[in-house]
Amino acid sequence: MKLSILDQAPVLSGKTSQDALIESMKLAQCGEKLGYTRYWIAEHHDFPGLASSAPEVMLGYIGANTEKIRIGAGAILLPHYKPYKVAETFNMLATLFPNRIDLGIGRAPGGSAEASIALSGNFLENVRNMPNSIKELLHFLYNNYPADQMFSKITAHPFPDVAPVPWILGTSEKSAIQAAEHGTAYAFGHFMSDRDGIEIVNTYRSSFRQNDGIQEPQVIVTISIICAETTEQAEELALSWFLSKIQTDKGKKNKGIPTIEEAKNYSFTSEEQERMKEMRQKMIIGSPKEVKKELVELQSAYNADEMMIVTITNSYESRKKSYELIAKEIW
């Protein structure tokens, strides 16, 4: 089974954003050593508890400190940006780090309405124009703009020998159809979707059209996992994440993931306990053997080419250990 890493660059209680970004680089190094296929870093805005607002900057740092693991954005939120600039940026990364760059494309705001306005003005209008933006971006990545169109005389330099590989990320049928119609690979966010992911992924495969990109459908399924030596330890680690998520959902801008002690001492309401049960259904939490069993079952259900794991715990050591335990058990 191919395994990969999705990193949201969490800032932990008592730590700084600089700490978080340095630990993200160390996680990529760890993933490379363990044999993970790729490392992606997400994009978020105006979240004090998540440090990566500019994945393209982090990828230069991570690429320079790793050697072979594929690296990419999970995802660049395209409605905020002009396709030409995104193509230039990722072509430059692909020039610096040949045959290692993935360009994940997303359509979420990645932050508050105010942050979206500050970034790109009319976000909803940009979302409506998303199909055209994807088409334009792909033309620049493949350098195949039709001669009769406006941008046919420009190239997104530097143009690499091997183009960045585009992936469309999503949690809905709409994103699956966009990926299929544009002939890109597809990454489905199981950990953040309330819909029938298996049906969505099957829609992508059945609708796939070969264009200038990949030859056949490719699917990554992303799942949130917390693995520890024992089930009890894993459940304790998860409690910190549950509290952080509940507080964020309430509009509280956490400056760090709470400690286990803080989570244990917190009095969860009955409504919050129900919310934790809902979150738990989209996660895998347990010992290495328990995680392997559920992960293999999920991969089989989706028939996924690759499983991507996002892990947030209250310490960088336990996060790294989770990835180590999973790799050892799977391989």
UniProtKB/TrEMBL annotation:
InterPro entries: Bact_Lucif_Oxidored (IPR050766), CmoO-like (IPR019949), Luciferase-like_dom (IPR011251), Luciferase-like_sf (IPR036661). One of its GO terms (molecular function) is oxidoreductase activity. Residues 1-301 form the Luciferase-like domain. Keywords: Oxidoreductase. It comes from Niallia hominis. The keyword DNA repair does not apply. To bacterial alkanal monooxygenase alpha and beta chains. Pfam families: Bac_luciferase (PF00296). This is LLM class flavin-dependent oxidoreductase. CDD domains: Flavin_utilizing_monoxygenases. PANTHER family: LUCIFERASE-LIKE MONOOXYGENASE (PTHR30137). Its EC number is 1.-.-.-.
